[in-house]
Amino acid sequence: MADVHVRCWQETYRGLMSDAVLDDPGFPAARERFWTAALTDGRYRENRTAVVEREGELIGVAMSGPSLDAAAAGARHLYLLYVVTPAHGTGAGQALLDAVIDPVESAVLWVADPNPRAQAFYRKHGFVADGAVQVADGIREIRMIRCVQAPSPVL
């Protein structure tokens, strides 16, 4: 999972983030520590994690959890969804998203800007930019939210 995470950062953020960060020899070990904690630490027990594999090779990872964002109270937070570049357009991203966030569940995420491919993917799945912007890890990000209305009761 750490290897896919690192590879996807290198593929996605090259040119948006410092090469020194992306090529840091300690970066894979840091992602291994992240995934070990995410999968074993009780603080993250409400998180949902999924992977996609093709022909015995891990090609994507995703994780969601309760939102810590006050503006998105009650929504699920998509913390990460990464698919290696050769697997883009194969349905792997859709499978990951559906595995960690129910299609009828309200959700929030932050996505790199510019990252038109990812933003289009999220728009396709009902997310809209709400105007919020932040800089995280040296990358400008926009917040996207998907609000799902409960069905009206039949009278």
From TrEMBL:
Gene3D superfamilies: 3.40.630.30
Keywords: Transferase
N-acetyltransferase domain residues: 4-149
Recorded GO MF terms: acyltransferase activity, transferring groups other than amino-acyl groups
Domain of life: Bacteria
Keyword Hydrolase carried by entry: no
Protein name in the entry: Acetyltransferase (GNAT) family protein
Organism (species): Actinoplanes xinjiangensis
